[in-house]
Amino acid sequence: MPDNDTDDYTMAVVMINEEFAAIREEEQKSSDVTKEITKEITKEIKKIMKENPAISANEIAEILNVKAEAVRYRIKLMKKSGEITRKGATKAGEWEVIE
What we know:
The chain has 99 residues and is mainly alpha-helical. The protein has a domain at 43-99: Winged helix-like DNA-binding domain superfamily/Winged helix DNA-binding domain (Arc Repressor Mutant, subunit A). The protein has 3 helices and 2 strands, in the order αααββ. It has helices at 18-51, 57-64, 68-81, and strands spanning 84-87, 94-97. The chain has a two-stranded antiparallel sheet with strand order 1-2. The termini are far apart. The mean pLDDT is 87.
């Protein structure tokens, strides 16, 4: 054991509550499911863009039955990562999915 008068550290023993550990495990599972759903939605957005390059975010949201804000957010991330680009004007342009 350290002597607090001469040592520059303190040792602590922390007991983990079993219920807390179970909650953390469930949170991790939930996070993994969310990531998988996000991947699937991203794939679907790309598929829809390939089939109809002139489609809008609102139309994609209607097809996928998700909020338009969620689609716009995924599009923003895909543009930032270089997975898609927008060719042409905002309203008259088309999506290009980069493989």
